[in-house]
Amino acid sequence: MEELKAVGATTQFIVIKLGEEQYGIDIKYIDNIVRMQHITRVPKVDAYLKGVINLRGEVIPVMSIRIKMGLEADVETKSSRIIILKLEQHGTIGVIVDEVKEVVTLENENIEKMAYDSKDEKASFLCGVGKCEGGLISLLDLNSVVLEGI
Amino acid sequence: MDVSQYLEIFLDETNEHLQNLNTQILSLEQDPENMDTINEIFRAAHSLKGMAGTMGYKRMQTLTHDMENVFSEVRNGNIKVNADMIDVLFQCLDALEEYNTNIRESSDEGTNDNGALIKRLNVIMSGDEGENADKAAPAPQANAPAASETSESAQMFRQIKLNENQQNVLKEADRQGKNVYGLTVKVQESCILKAARAFLVFKAIEETSEIIVSDPSSQDIEDEKFDLHFSLIIISEEKLDTVVNAAKSVSEIEDVIGGVLNMNDVNSAKEADEEEAAAEQPEPAPAETTPAQPVTEAAPPAEAAPAQPTPQDQTPAPAATPAPAAKKNTANKPVVNRTVRVDIEKLDTLMNLVSELIIAKNSLVSASTMSGNSSPAVNEQIEYLESVTTSLHESVMKVRMVPIESTVNKFPRMVRDLQKKLGKKMELYMSGEETELDRTVVDQIGDPLMHLLRNSADHGLESAEVRKERGKPEVGSIFLDAYQDGNNVVIEVRDDGNGIDTKAVKNKAIERGVITPEQGENMSEKEIIDLLFNAGFSTAKVVSDVSGRGVGLDVVKSMIESLSGEVEVKSKLGEGSTWTIRLPLTLAIIQALMVDIGNEKYAISLGSIQTIEDISPADVKLVQAKEVIQLRDLVIPLVRLCDILDVPSKKNPEDNLVVVIVKKGDKQAGLVVDELIGQQEIVIKSLGKYISKCKIISGATVLGDGEVALILDANTLI
What we know:
CATH topology of the largest domain in chain B: Heat Shock Protein 90
Low-confidence stretches of chain A: 1-6
CATH architecture of chain A: Beta Barrel
Oligomer: heterodimer
Mean pLDDT of chain A: 81
Number of strands of chain A: 11
Helix content of chain A: under 10%
């Protein structure tokens, strides 16, 4: 993420919760946030692909970040949301999150880059850690979360 | 005004002409004496030349011009058609196609002069004709008699009415010692883009001179609101000849008549003009298409008579009297409006909108049944809406359908080239060229078909000697048949060659490490043939120009699959092989049967469904540990969808089975479902790249209640 190097610049993140941990998703990738709805299962695909939903007439695949990151499966609650991401080359995909909290603006100097030699599977999906008043936010590297294994 | 707006039309028409030339030259080869063919070729070459000239593609123009000369000599009986000449002509067509591709990509024709080809064309001309060669060259262009005709009536520019302002400008120029000229430009009758021509004339003249006034007005000229001629008054420092020649250098300009205007002329011309107009008025006004000012309207009849007798290249009969000529023009106008060229993207948008409409209609249907208070009137209207949307969909589909002719037409030429290259004798027989398919499919089916034909020619057919030994006719036959079969279009490529040698394929596969020898032992013939579609597999012993690079059949397969089609091979050693391509008629909206499996809803395309049967569990037999049923003397394998889709069935095992019999080609299978929901028109949506692994699902659709249902691809289940 080259833009993180620029000094003094800021990046906006949407803070989401998966379990107890807070994660940040770069706002430029986010197309939409919708409530949990019925997901049509697609047979014979990897477990993290939950199926497809209808978003205003378009059929959009939905994946579970939890399963992808090796956490326990999603439990659907009132605060569950599907975040619709738009990735340049790979089109639109929805990811399920437990809760959407807020939007934060992080100054780039408050973002600490992750060491890449980490062997931890969960860590390889992160591109950095942001510090703000609410505590630490793990910043998701969407390209590796969404695209790995496809 | 800019020529680029004509670029699309130019490219399209050039393609058409090139295709036409290809076909005609092929038939000329068969029947060298056929005057109709020669005339047709000449016409096409001539139009090509004209169009290239209009667009300012000089190299293309030169090449077509020389080709046209050859045809013109052939037409006059001065040269005989021979094989060598046909070869050269084909090479010319290839060169033209190259120009065309260049233009499409960069709007520039490239820098290849094709001098060698032009030289060979000239050799053909001079070889048989000697001294005539030089004379022939300018023949189709300049019309000598017309040039000498500078009678007063042809100088239409003298009739231009000048307003005071313009007169002052001219007088001022005259005083400064500049020349004031009048020009009347006549465009050839066969010219297609008159406005573009006029534009080029304007451009050519403006290089040296200043255009003061034009008749009709430049706006009208730009809108093509003029007959065959227009007049200009210009101020120039150059000699009259220079200006006239500059204008004449634009192609398809039949003639340019110029004259010096002196200031007295300007005034007297105006008076004379009025007099003339007055004199002409009492005559019955001839039918004129452009509602021009009365002054100019009087001009055509006075001028048409002397201008007509100029020799025309291809008008069947030079019109004798002005009246029919005028009539012909009025009759021609509406013809232009019969067809419309539409950007394919606009059709795509239209198709998408129709899809949305159908989804909305489906929602309306389910909403009205859900609410339960549907009155008969509402139902009636919904049914009416349903029939309208279905017809609308069909109409839009039809608009998008084009005959595969445009794609397959290039194949006879290709087979001819292959014949020379491979040194085999072969003949291509085509049928069903009029079969229609969606435009996008037709555009993309060309390459796979070409691969298959080349494959048949290279691997399939034996050499003439071998064929003779085997007691086959020396000339091999390749057949290309297309026809519609239910909701599919089938294209077959068949040859009477050697067929596929399964042993050779098996050995090759083992050698290449595609399969192990043990695997090879147990493979059925069909499985072995399917190996051919493996990437990087080619049995040709020598890598040839034609095929044998090992990229071929796997590409064919993936291309056809990307069009939601499929390809199949049948082969008999020694007798030939048949490749069958099956393509869906439509890519966007289909009629489907909705079924329940477990708690999920699935759609099965109605096109592949034969019947629906109610089968007692007792009738299910086991053959080789696979479940089958017997139906009207046919043994049909059963596919339990709940197992394949990993959903628990809701049904009691003792209950009768609901079996949907689907077919693919001549094979059938019975799909066991829980419940039938009904028939519905559905819009196919792609599942996207993330979910491409699932082969049995061909797409998804949005149901009336907003839920997504998956579409089963019955073909993969058979």
